[in-house]
Amino acid sequence: MEYGIRYIVGTDLSPIVSDLALKKEYYALLFIKSAGCTLYFNQVLLDFPANSLIFVPFGTSLKSNPKESREFVLIYFTESFFCRSDWDCTFLQNFFSVSVDSATYRVLGVPDEYLFYYEFVRTHLEMARMQSPESIQHVLAFNIIKQILLLGQVYLGDRHSAKFMEESESALVVNRFQQLILEHVSHEKHVSYYADRLKVSPRKLAMYTKEVTSKTPKVLIADGLIRVAKRLLANSRLSIKQIAWQLGYTDENNFSAFFSKEAGESPKNYRNNLKR
User: Fold this and answer.
1) What is the pLDDT of residue 69?
2) What CA–CA distance (Å, rounded) separates 205 from 202?
3) Which of 2, 50, 131, 243 could be cross-linked to 81 through a Cys-Cys bond (beta carbons 3.0 to 4.6 Å apart)?
4) Which residues does the UniProt record annotate as the domain HTH araC/xylS-type (predicted)?
């Protein structure tokens, strides 16, 4: 399944963690109900407040609290399900900020006047799953999930991802830059290569990326490389040496040093943590 909705109580989350949230790199949206809820994020037990919406990027280790009896709603979807255009993919990447730290999650308190939204989402996603043909199901679900993320971006006051809603030259160039990174970073890591493809000077590209993301082109390239590396570590059976070669590193140790510096843990530990 490329998307789905589940009602989770206590240990109900355990059977789906390795198959759903980790190996296939699902993003997750958690609707915490009026009673609140506790669950483990990357081996840390967190207590989430009542009536909150949690945005969880791929690669995050989710584990239920066996002592928990309060229910929450889990909506999950893949990157390929959401990325139906370059804009969608770039928005998703920037909203979740998954390229550097996949352990990051975001919390949005839902005002009392919007509590009906829980029921709205549940009802319409369930309706989407019953539609035929399957293509209609996916379009309905996609539109609902996209609406949730857009509302999250608005109410969280996310200036960086909001930039991608603009049609300014800088936003369009940076959008395309990040797409090119994901397509070519395995064999090309020089800023000049991307600037040439975008038909701008390296200096102008740096000015645009600073304006839109507050990052340099080199940092965005490193972010993209880590993003691809995490995908391969989580979703493939390639050895770390094979992944290093695939990403353009002839020396596995150099790749491991780069990954450890950018991700805060070694490739081996990252992969092992996903299996817990």
Assistant:
1) 81
2) 5
3) 2
4) 175-273
